[in-house]
């Protein structure tokens, strides 16, 4: 038997990503013969891989798979791919006497099968005169196969006879045959059907028409992670996606190139953690990939298409390659140097050849950025200069003049002096049009220009500093401005503004409080510019580390004093936003009404930016305080304003906080995917990575991936130590200490919470210790520090007097319950119940469930009915959010307290199905958990875990690495087992 194979360079060794829905459709179609599966898509999109995966899944059930390929020959052999597919079918055929006589006509085209075929009918020696006999013979032979899949690849290259044969077959399918075909619509005449004529599946024939589109950016990131592991950073994934535009063939060729790097270099990076010269290996990998040549497979495919174009089509494509951005028909025609009729014909030809596409009404561009590069390099250098000059002339006639594009073409012509004149004006125009990203890129390019006039360099640096605050790529601006600030020719005040911008980027975007040192240094240089000095003071007030927060009010008062003599509406808005932030941080309930007074619109972008900042800050602090519903409204508004005002970092932070709220509210579905999507968009923002680690750490701990949880909490903790705000450090310490308690290491947990409590004390941040306080008290009690735990609890309670912070109030009740329980005093159940009710009112079911566990333990000795009710309530919540480890702990507690079981007692046989416990183990294996993780998460012995793992792998017929895919297939086949209700622990 022959099997269809994917192209050698595409798919082999790579994970199949982004195709779950399509693969499910294909598998479903092929599992219900007779079936006709048609897969359409451009070259390299993954048609062959999808069909190969689907037929491999069905082959596992014993079905035969026969495959043939159509070839781009000038004189195709009639029926060639079907004949090729049948060459090795001897083992599948019944005895010759059981085959229809018409199958004997195939003796001339399938001589290797001749002994297995009936005698040849007379008069069939001439191929042309006997073609109808061949058609009958092929259909007869295919109909005689028992439960087979016929795969025909690249139907767009099929000859008419093959297409007619497949059409007849598809219209009258043998009962045990499935037919799968792939084709590229762009290589067929416009609107031509795949089979050459209209086809509709007959009644009783299963199947699907699947049109494959490009992968999304998160899909490409997943593909990279599967191939490269931790080297697949979001930055690298973004470069992969930008180069491939979601085309799997291109992304996989790039990944192969990365994987084939010299082993010695890879070993050196692994050993030292950096590349020679100190460059960051991950960043260097992404940068080198961005500079890499176009992958050979894509280059060949594009070159093949370009070679088919006529003179007019080639001229339009060359014009599109030079313009490099979507362009209308008139602009393409002008740059190509064609008349209107020839321009229209050339554009139409390029569209039909799938070289260009209409990306928007009357806007035409290449389908992939790398395709544009291939086409651009095919244009000889002198001709490129001519086309760039035509582009400048054509764009100069438009109003307003697109200066960024004109500057680009001017530089491409080699006229550097003219480009320098244009670059500053282009940046100013981009800012005025609300496109600071283009302005920043233009200014950075200008500042990289060797021999630039010092006065012009200073103006460009100052312009960049003034728009750098919202930079989504802060590292690039930091690098450029760091070089500029050392220039002794800069005026002192200009240097101060540039240093102030550097401080903002370092402290806010990079999450490094060292940026405040730069801001303090800038303050001394801004004496001539009091409004900018006031802005520096507002920024310094935000630092709350090492006791600096005690001086925050003084810094704001000094800024107000400067504004009294030098009014500045933008800086006044910053003072207002910071004051509201401090009110929220202190738990002052008056802040909520004050927020309604903020302007939501203004002619001054900075005023809107500061309103957005205030809404985000207070919304994020609102989560810490326990005002989840109010915080959701504030964060939704900050997200909307940030998007409208093009403030990407505030949009990112708002979306992060909204994801956190969803998790707190028990909506845990697809959290990882949402983080991946956000990380791909905003991978350069340090806080985005830290928040992701905090939430994914909690998710991993709840689901039993303890090693991953530790890694995530440690990442967040390192960020928290650098950051000027203490909240991340407090939350990271709480997460890590809670994990250490779960692992039974109370000493380590106490060591973790000690510095965090000192930080909360120095910053007067007790209102933000809802996560830390109960964990700290439990760790201190467990290490014999009951008196210290009581003192910490009372210290927090005293500090919160007069402050409104429902979440910390609940945490205090938990802490008091822990103290009462540890000392054997009455009232622990009442304290835990108060905490549980508060968490319920706030809207945090997971926290309420944790309190329910405490209530059950406290009530079990004297009120078993209520204890049973509380433990069951907790278990329901954990099952709802798939918190595997929490569920297992809850069930163990139920057993230890002898509170009965939620399911029926005793064991029952599960056969090939996974038992509930095996299902838990399988889910942890699918997430990459090792045996030690599973044992700790499910409160099992290592030997018991080994037994369950062996059973899971045997029942799924898979390896550890393939458990996720095998479990998904088992679910589809109905043998994956159900939830873990009633597991006997």
Key terms:
mainly alpha, five-stranded parallel beta sheet, 46 helices, 4% strand, flat, disordered N terminus, disordered C terminus
Average pLDDT taken over every residue: 84
Count the E strands: 7
Biggest sheet descriptor: 5 strands, parallel
Number of helices: 46
Calculate the terminal CA-CA distance, rounded to whole Å: 49 Å
Sequence of strands across the biggest β-sheet: 2-3-4-1-5
Helix content: 55-70%
What is the CA-atom radius of gyration, in angstroms?
Answer: 34 Å
Categorize the overall geometry. flat
Beta percentage is under 5%
Low-pLDDT ranges? 1-12, 124-129, 262-280, 903-907, 979-985
Structural class: mainly alpha
Structure write-up:
With 985 residues, the protein is mainly alpha-helical. It has 46 helices and 7 strands. A 5-stranded parallel β-sheet has the order 2-3-4-1-5, sandwiched between helices. Strand 6 (356-360) and strand 7 form a beta hairpin. It starts with 19 loop residues before the first helix and ends in a 12-residue tail after the last helix.
């Amino acid at each position: 038997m022959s099997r269809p194979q994917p192209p050698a360079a595409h798919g082999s060794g790579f994970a199949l990503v982004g195709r779950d829905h399509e693969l499910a459709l294909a598998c479903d179609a092929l599992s219900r013969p007779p079936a006709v599966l048609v897969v359409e898509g451009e070259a390299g999109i993954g048609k062959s891989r999808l069909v190969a995966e689907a037929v491999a899944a069905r082959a596992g059930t014993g079905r035969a798979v026969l495959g043939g390929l159509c070839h781009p020959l000038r004189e195709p052999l009639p029926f060639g791919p079907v004949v090729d597919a049948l060459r090795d079918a001897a083992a599948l055929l019944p005895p010759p006497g059981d085959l229809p006589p018409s199958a004997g006509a195939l003796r001339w085209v399938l001589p290797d099968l001749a002994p297995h075929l009936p005698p040849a009918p007379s008069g069939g020696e001439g191929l042309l005169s006997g073609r109808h006999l061949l058609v009958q013979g092929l259909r007869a032979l295919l109909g005689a196969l028992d439960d087979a899949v016929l795969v025909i690849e690249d139907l767009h290259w099929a000859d008419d006879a093959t297409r007619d044969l497949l059409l007849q077959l598809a219209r009258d399918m043998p009962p045990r045959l499935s037919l799968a075909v792939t084709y590229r619509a762009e290589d067929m005449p416009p609107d031509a059907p795949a089979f050459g004529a209209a086809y509709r599946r007959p009644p009783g024939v299963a199947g699907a028409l699947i049109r494959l589109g490009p992968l999304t950016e998160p899909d490409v990131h997943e593909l990279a992670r599967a191939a490269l592991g931790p080297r697949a950073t979001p930055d690298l994934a973004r470069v992969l996606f930008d180069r491939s535009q979601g085309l799997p063939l291109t992304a996989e060729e790039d990944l192969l190139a990365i994987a084939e790097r010299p082993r010695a270099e890879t070993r050196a990076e692994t050993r030292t953690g950096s590349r020679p010269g100190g460059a960051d290996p991950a960043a260097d990998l992404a940068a080198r990939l961005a500079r890499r040549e176009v992958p050979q497979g894509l280059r060949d495919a594009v070159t093949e298409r370009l070679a088919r174009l006529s003179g007019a089509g080639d001229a339009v494509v060359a014009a599109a390659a030079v313009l490099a951005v979507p362009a209308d028909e008139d602009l393409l025609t002008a740059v190509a140097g064609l008349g209107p009729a020839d321009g229209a014909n050339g554009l139409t030809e390029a569209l039909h050849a799938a070289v260009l596409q209409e990306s928007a009404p009357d806007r035409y561009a290449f389908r992939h950025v790398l395709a544009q590069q291939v086409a651009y390099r095919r244009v000889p250098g002198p001709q490129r200069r001519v086309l760039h000059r035509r582009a400048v002339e054509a764009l100069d006639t438009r109003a307003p003049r697109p200066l960024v594009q004109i500057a680009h073409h001017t530089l491409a012509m080699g006229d550097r002096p003219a480009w320098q004149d244009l670059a500053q004006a282009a940046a100013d125009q981009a800012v005025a049009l609300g496109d600071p990203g283009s302005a920043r890129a233009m200014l950075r390019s200008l500042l990289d220009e060797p021999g630039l006039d010092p006065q012009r360099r200073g103006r460009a640096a100052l312009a960049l500093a003034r728009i750098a605050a919202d930079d989504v790529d802060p590292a690039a601006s930091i690098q450029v401005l760091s070089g500029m600030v050392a220039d002794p020719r800069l005026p002192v005040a200009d240097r101060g503004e540039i240093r102030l911008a550097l401080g903002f980027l370092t402290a806010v975007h990079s999450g490094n409080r060292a940026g405040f040192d730069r801001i303090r240094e800038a303050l001394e240089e801004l004496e001539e510019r009091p409004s900018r000095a006031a802005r520096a003071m507002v920024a310094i007030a935000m630092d709350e580390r090492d006791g600096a927060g005690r001086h925050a009010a003084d810094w704001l008062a000094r800024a107000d004093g400067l504004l009294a003599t030098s009014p500045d509406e933008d800086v006044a808005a910053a003072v207002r936003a910071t004051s509201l932030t401090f009110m929220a941080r202190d738990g002052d309930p008056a802040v909520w009404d004050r927020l309604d007074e903020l302007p939501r619109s203004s002619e001054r972008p900075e005023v809107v930016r500061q309103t957005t900042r205030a809404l985000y800050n207070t919304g994020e602090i609102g989560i810490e305080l326990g005002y989840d519903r109010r915080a959701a409204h504030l964060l939704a508004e900050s997200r909307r304003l940030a998007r409208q005002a093009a403030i990407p970092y505030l949009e990112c932070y708002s979306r992060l906080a909204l994801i956190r709220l969803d998790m707190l509210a028990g909506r845990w579905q697809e959290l990882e995917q949402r983080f991946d999507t956000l990380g791909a968009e905003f991978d350069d923002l340090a806080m985005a990575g830290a928040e992701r680690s905090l939430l994914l750490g909690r998710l991993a701990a709840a689901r039993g991936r303890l090693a991953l949880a530790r890694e995530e909490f440690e990442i967040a903790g390192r960020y928290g130590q650098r950051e000027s705000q203490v909240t991340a450090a407090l939350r990271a310490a709480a997460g890590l200490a809670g994990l250490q308690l779960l692992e039974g290491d109370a000493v380590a947990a106490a060591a973790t919470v000690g510095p965090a409590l000192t930080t909360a004390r120095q910053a007067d941040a007790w209102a933000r210790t809802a996560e830390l306080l109960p964990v700290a008290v439990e760790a201190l009690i467990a290490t014999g520090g009951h008196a210290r735990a009581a003192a910490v609890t009372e210290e927090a309670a005293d500090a919160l007097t007069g402050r409104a912070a429902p979440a910390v109030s609940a945490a205090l009740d938990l802490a008091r319950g822990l103290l009462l329980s540890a000392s054997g005093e009455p009232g622990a159940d009442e304290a835990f119940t108060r905490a549980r009710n508060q968490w319920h009112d706030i809207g945090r079911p997971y926290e309420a469930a944790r309190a329910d566990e405490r209530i059950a333990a406290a009530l079990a000795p004297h009120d078993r009915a209520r204890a049973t009710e509380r433990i069951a309530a907790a278990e329901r919540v954990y099952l709802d959010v798939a918190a595997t480890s929490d569920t297992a702990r809850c069930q163990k507690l139920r057993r230890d307290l002898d509170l009965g079981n939620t399911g029926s007692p005793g064991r029952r046989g599960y056969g090939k199905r996974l038992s509930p416990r095996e299902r838990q183990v399988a889910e942890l294996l699918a997430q990459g958990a090792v045996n030690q993780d599973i044992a700790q998460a499910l409160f099992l012995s290592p030997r018991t875990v080994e037994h369950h793992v062996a059973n899971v792998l045997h029942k799924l017929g898979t390896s550890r690495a393939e458990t996720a895919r095998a479990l998904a297939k088992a679910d589809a086949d109905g043998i994956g087992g159900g939830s873990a209700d009633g597991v006997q622990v």
